[in-house]
From TrEMBL:
Gene3D superfamilies: 3.60.21.10. Keywords: Hydrolase. It comes from the Bacteria. This is Predicted phosphohydrolases.
């Protein structure tokens, strides 16, 4: 009888920024146990301190559970890491019978920007205001992305040529398709599209018919699965509490907490985050929030 495995992928866990207590981590691990998950993969942005927070967290999970834990890095994970440290966990392959699970970091090349692109302005904004100014990469963004694409194509070519592999599932952090970028007329927000990812990743994926699914995060918007060129894309990042789905449910149940600027996610969260009603609601519904951020695959061993 073929042994079954259950792979769960989650992105943008942001363990430190979300201030998860041990009780909340236990809720997460209990959920995974109840869902009969055997393999857990973090698709980037686990924390802002890879060695100090993320690695001990992985060890804790493996100590408390029977889960096999893997990961690829996001931009937040790369803070304080050398290029060599970043490359160690890039382009990993985990085999599940005839399915290959490929994970790689990804990056961005400004190609999601619309209109005329002023690279000097994009770089200046990044170096002055964007989070990634804290990351020190060996090459510029466009070269990094090109190197990622070259390595990705080489790996996918090798896997596709293997007759023992009939399916490839991919996990990455950065956005691989333009359908998921920020659609806004406001330049203030549109400029962030430069740092989201690259359409060139999708152009690479569609060359390989064995690729069935791609899971990614980075942009904190949960979307229904979408198929492009026979590749099914999954975007269910956990993100920050002010972005969580449960806030809408909370405000429906407790309308007295609604504010005039209810569209402003941070402001509406700040209006409730210390209230006893919210804290009780968060505890009661955190399990559901975690579950909605999981992408699950049933696979053979």
């Amino acid at each position: 009888m073929t042994k079954k495995r259950r792979l769960a992928v989650i992105s943008d866990f942001h363990m430190d920024s979300n201030h998860f207590s041990q009780e909340e981590i236990d809720i997460f691990l209990s959920l995974l146990k109840d869902l009969k998950i055997t393999d857990l993969h973090f698709a980037g942005d686990i924390s802002n301190d890879f060695h100090g927070i993320s690695e001990p967290f992985f060890k804790q999970i493996e100590l408390l559970t029977e889960l096999s834990v893997t990961y690829n890095l996001g931009n937040h994970d790369m803070v304080g890491l050398s290029e060599e440290e970043i490359s160690v966990s890039n382009f990993q392959v985990k085999n599940f019978a005839s399915t290959a699970f490929v994970s790689f970091h990804g990056w961005y090349d400004y190609s999601f920007m619309t209109g005329k692109i002023d690279i000097k302005k994009i770089i200046a904004f990044k170096n002055s205001f964007y989070f990634d100014r804290k990351i020190h990469r060996q090459f510029d963004d466009i070269k990094i992305t090109n190197l990622e694409l070259q390595k990705l194509e080489k790996l996918l070519t090798e896997l596709s040529a293997n007759p023992k592999i009939d399916r490839i599932i991919v996990s990455t952090h950065f956005v691989p398709h333009q359908q998921f970028i920020i659609n806004t007329r406001y330049e203030k927000f549109a400029r962030f599209n430069a740092y989201l990812g690259s359409q060139h990743f999708h152009e690479t994926f569609k060359k390989f018919p064995k690729i069935s699914d791609v899971v990614f995060g980075h942009l904190h918007q949960r979307r229904l699965p979408l198929t492009f060129d026979k590749v099914l894309y999954h975007a269910h990042p956990l993100g920050y509490p002010y972005e969580w789905q449960m806030i809408n449910h909370f405000l429906e149940e407790y309308p007295q907490y609604q504010i005039a600027e209810n569209w402003h996610l941070r402001k509406r969260y700040n209006a409730i985050r210390k209230s006893s009603d919210w804290l009780k609601f968060r505890k009661a519904h955190l399990r559901e929030e975690f579950q909605s951020a999981l992408t699950i695959f049933d696979l053979d061993d």
